[in-house]
Batch of 2 targets.
Target 1
Amino acid sequence: MARQSPDRIFTSMTLPLSFVFFVLLGLSVYFYYHAKSGIVRKAALFSDRTKALPSHYGQQSFLWAFIPSFLILLVLTIGGPNYIDQIFYNKIQELNPTFNESFVSLILAKVINVSNGKISTGEENIIMLAKDYKIAFEQLHFYRGLVVILCAALLGMIISYRQKPGSNAREQVEKFIVNIFFASAVIAIFTTVAIILSLFFEALRFFNLYNFFDFIFGLHWAPNVAIRTDQVAAEGSFGMIPVLLGTLLISFIAMCVAIPIGLLSAIYLAEFATPKIRDFVKPTLEILAGIPTVVYGYFAALTAAPFFREIGFSLGLDVSSESAIAAGAVMGIMIIPFISSLSDDVIRAVPQSLRDGSMGLGATKAETIYIVILPAAIPGLVGAVLLAVSRAIGETMIVVMAAGLSANLTVNPLESVTTVTVQIVSLLTGDTEFDDIKTLSAFGLGLALFFFTLLLNIFALSISRRLAERYD
Amino acid sequence: MIRKSIQSRRARETRLKIYGISSICFALIMLATLLISIGLNGYSALQQAYFKLDISVNTEKFVDDSGAPDNNKMNLFNWDGLVQSALREFFPEVKERDEKKELFAIISANAGYDLKEFVKKKALGSGSHTFSVWLHLSDDADQYLKGRLSIDIPEEDRRINNKQIAWVNSLVERDIAKLKFNKTFFTSADSREPESAGILGSVIGSALTLFVTIMFALPLAVMAAIYLEYFAKPGKITDFIEVNVNNLAAVPSIVFGLLGLSVFLSTFGLPRSAPLVGGLVLGLMTLPTIIIASRASIRSIPPSIREAALGLGASKMQAALHHVLPLATPGILTGTIIGMAQALGETAPLLMIGMVAFIIDIPTTFTSSATAMPVQIYMWSDSAERAFYERSSLAILFLVAFLISMNLLAVVLRKKFEKKW
């Protein structure tokens, strides 16, 4: 292997990220003041007035020097190490063409760890590669710093040179800022696209290994847990119907608790409660909504599950210690404030004139609620319930802690069932390799979960919007 | 007849009211049950069983020539032996190997290590020293002293046997062992031994993560909100952005974890278990919440303010940044606090990006391995030892107290700055 002789003068200067960043910042601030005073001098020279405030020219210089250089810094910091890893991966593979992919990755990991000083080894090849690796990183850091600082300096000088008292710096700065604002708004789109693409491509790799229809319609879910990699185990089966059924069962139980209680609370709060009671109950329910789900999970696993088990025992029923009913009931309690606050808003959005008309005709308050208000609010209430269902389906921690792992095809709430989110967590938190079929199947489940909740959300939001439009 | 029908109509109204009141009561009772049951589980973790040992040690064995303690020699020194021989002085009758093993099981497995740290901190000069030190009893002895291990069940099913109970009791009688304030819980990170486990590591992990979240999400969200309110031209792109923001707010949090796993970890190659990645994932998750709150806050500022600014010759950008934004700040802050509270309590996405590892060190940088408070709670509730349950409950109490105060702060801010224009 031919070792490249690194330029020692360069690599002996390390330029850490924070140093480069602060130099960049300092340089940009310098250009701010440089441009600000420069434009006044130029204006005096031409005995002209500047078209914008001097500080606008400063801002322009700052932005032009800072933003592009910062983006370059970001790209090099994230992309650089990956690029080096790829080079060394190829190098190792060239040296040992017989090794398979995972073994090459293993050697690469060893090289990285040796170069960091995390482990020490006697193998000469690896030590040599590790040295090269370290040098490559030093070079990367050096050139990163050089490029970023030069770029900032160059851009700052160009913009300062080009600024004329007649150019409207304010307009240009504002255009620039609007573009930055637009970019931040577009991040929402990027996030959605990134979610869909990442789930989709990983799921696609899963469906290359496992039949798509077997996944969608399969009645058996058993991702076998191979303890050793060389263990000969039966092919795992990944039929998602039992997992889906478990999810729906637990969500259904949760809804049985949350819908009546949430709706009745909302009706009472919106129509009957005095302002004093409202001012006390609403924040308290918000506390219930603010409790982290892991706390509900703890409550479900350590308090609710034994409680249901004992009740079942005294009734002569055999209740599993990871019963669907415990997880579902606690999830229902979690969702009560969600439904009640959404429905409260919906009910209060019904115009007062409808109430007055009904009461004026002699109806009691209860009749007004049953006959006038609820029918008027029904689309919004359905929207609220659908959002709650989507939340129950996507809820993770309660079921991870209180529901089971084995996928039973049952609708008996006393038995243990598993859910989509439980499976995703259990498949991805072990020490599995990324290309493993089990890991990939989690992305298949994730894709299903995402689309299911997405459909519910879109439907719910469109229903609610229609209601809002009706009474505008 | 009419009177009867009126009666039944009134009764119907009363029934509806009762349903409403009872469902609110149910929700409130559940909240109370939740908090009380966790409080009852957790309060005892504020105390921990300690025992006092008189140790005499000659520092010659672990100082170098200049008299300063040598780390290497200190690590090699048999601290466990020192603790064990000091403990045996209380029970001279214990001779047999098995019995000794049982005796040493009533003190923490980390006792030797704790003693070493104690001596290190004390920086003893050379020569022999005698001092007394409080060390942890084992978690089983601790649970027994707190009355949390029932001794009615048969001896072989118990984690602590009769002999050990007698030893612990005799230590207590001689005033050598007692329950003291559990300082370890607040000053150390996770450990395999419940008596040495604390929440400081996860608190700092959470703080680092939240710092990244707020630095990432707040500026982006405010900029996006201003754009959508004032600069977006009505059209397909703007509609599409709005639909995306609203949908992202309802995407299950675990999906953001999957996104982080496949984008930040496998594509960008960022380190696993790092607060940096956790903060970015939580930032993406809270972004829509803050955008929606900021937009509502900006919209609640009367248009006359902006129009007046525009009328006096301010540009659109100046009107937005110099006039509307300062007035909208309290509302934006309220939304941010609520979003941060949500991020602080979130667990599932952090599990996906590996912040669920067992980490003994207190994290110091944004890329060092760390865990977060809710994840720590999850890990402790999954452990087999009874003593971890009570620590988990106490950690929950702190987390919930902190979250409630965050939410109260948001409410107070909203009340204080709420203006009727």
Target 2
Amino acid sequence: MVFAAQWAGEKKPLRKEADKQEEVSMRKTVTLGAMTVAAFAAGAAGAATLDDVKARGKLNCGVNTGLVGFAAPDANGEWQGFDVGICRAVAAAVLGDPTAVEFIPTTGKTRFTALSSGEIDILARNTTWTFTRDVDLKFDFVGVNYYDGQGFMVPKALGVSSAKELDGATVCIQTGTTTELNLADYFRKNNMTYQPVPIETEAEAKQQYLAGACDTYTTDASGLAASRASFENPGDHVVLPEIISKEPLGPVVRHGDNDWGDIVRWTFYALVAAEEYGITSANIEELSAGTDMPEVNRILGTEDNLGAMLGLEPGWAKAAIAAGGNYGELFEKNIGENTPIALSRGLNAQWTDGGLMYAPPFR
Amino acid sequence: MTVLSDPPVGSFRLSMLIYDSKYRSYTFQFIALMIVISLFAYLGSNLLTNLQAAGLNISYGFLGESSNYDINQSLIDYSSRSTHLRAAFVGALNTLLVAFLACITATIIGVIAGVLRLSPNWLVRKLMAAYVEAFRNVPVLIWIIIIFTILTAVLPAPSAFRGENPDATMLFGAIAFTNRGLYLPAPIWGPGSLILGVIFVASIIGVFAYRSYATKLLFDTGRLLPMGWPSFAILILPTLLAYFILGRPVTLEYPELAGFNFQGGIQILGSLIALWWALAIYTGAFIAENVRAGIQSVSKGQAEAAASLGMRPNRTMNLVVLPQALRVIIPPLISNYLNITKNSSLAIAVGYMDITGTLGGITLNQTGRAIECILLLMAFYLVISLTISGLMNVYNNAVKLKER
């Protein structure tokens, strides 16, 4: 089964929400692969994911097939990235070992099948939280680890300063993502016409856009920033001010296993809360000796025993934070302003800094 | 004294199922069938159980919901308010369009290249060999991307046509080659164009009538009427006359640069051109080999006999060799047509919205109904392929060697 999914994942064009480097290939074989997975994955989708993970000794984590900054293998074959950080934190919390993760690359199409068939325990793959996915596809989004939104990039020479001036434009768009729906809605709402140029890969989008085969390129703003940064002359292109959609990206688990959902949710919030309370990978040992801040003590397991309520060790959150640092550290290391992706915190700052990252209280 | 008795009339015993060669093959075929059936039953029930365990079900209700996405080429009315089903139809028609264009083009290319591969001219022969080997030995996906990349990179963007001294100009002031596709003048059907259409159809029938008359005359009396120019005249002249008599009912709408793009006229998307020609030249190379094999399968004596009757090489090829070669060419040609249709599902590589792009791509992604979409896709390709092979088999029966 695992083999089938990986095989399907590798062969199949991946489309993801934010931004992608994918390869096009034979779709029929792929989709057959996905069906085989669905047909063979017997009973793995039952409850008690926690027991399965513990018995297996490894966490199966569905990630992007390769999106630098979010999830991509580095030169040594080690998976690195913002979404990867979530997987490692959960593995550390549950198994005490951040390396006990099997990363399973999934594409836009295989990701949901892989999750519902039990192929993966968590899906951390720039997946936009939508009503249909949450309700109709029977998944639970445990939180939002990146607040994104769809924007437009145009060449400066076009003389366009607002997305409202794009009537009649040819728009390059990555196909199979929520961005496609937002685009259709936005132009319909503003009574404008456009011609979509569906694009399969990030590289192809760049080529088409730079050749002038489309007037504007639209995807999540984080993706636009990453693309623009990679241009020869980034200054010749502007990202228009309009953000036309909400793209809350977050980790997903199966609906129905609430215990497992709680573990993933609170591991994620432990990372967020850690940033808020100043727990970093540098000072975590020092702080876990005991502090005068009760909430920090509760997170680090030196006061009360929140871990037992989750069915985990008392040091679960400490292990999760130690795995890759708190939320802010993960952000800065993988997609922050000092990386090639160069994203500012924006909406993803802590609520205390005017952002939307707000962990519920640990008590 | 010996007593002769009849050999015992074998009553059926169970062991005969295995030891009697009369029954043995049935036994094993039956066992194999049961194994296959139970394998599929297992897969099917497993799928259903798992879907149920995950709280999912097989439902095609999503086809009636609005699709919410746009498609850049649709042969029928379509907007983002249309249903997923209609989006699937748009995709299906786009698949059929590109498959149809590519089948026709590949056949023409293949027949020409196949005949020329046997040319006595060394250069022509080697050029065609190079074409066949180069094109059929590189995956078609690569060809699709190569052609599309060339179109995108070499042709100017519409903005290059703008300004006092544009970098690019339209061919004859009417046709624009851009990296977004080809813009052609579109005909506007004014009043009276229906009459024009009727006259044109009548002319086509006239051409066939003339040709069958000429053939009959040739067979009956041996008189050879000219075929070429009278056919052409019958085809063109009446329509041309009527066009002017009716006061030019059909006018052309020229594409014009307005806003971001050319407006008006007909746009042929670059992705359609790339996919169409990649499939055509790729499969054309295979067809060329079929044609060559077919021609070589016709005994040399046939061509020599025709030559000794005084037939020119062209006529020998058309009247003697090709008709006999067809029975060898048609069966593999069917699989080439099927390949074109199925390979057209690579369309997404260049963003052409075929049924794999709409139903199997965006719809599948937006609704998450992977199994339903894939089953529909499989059914679609199966039906199309069986239809093509059915039609071609009818044709094959018509041209195959008649044994009486």
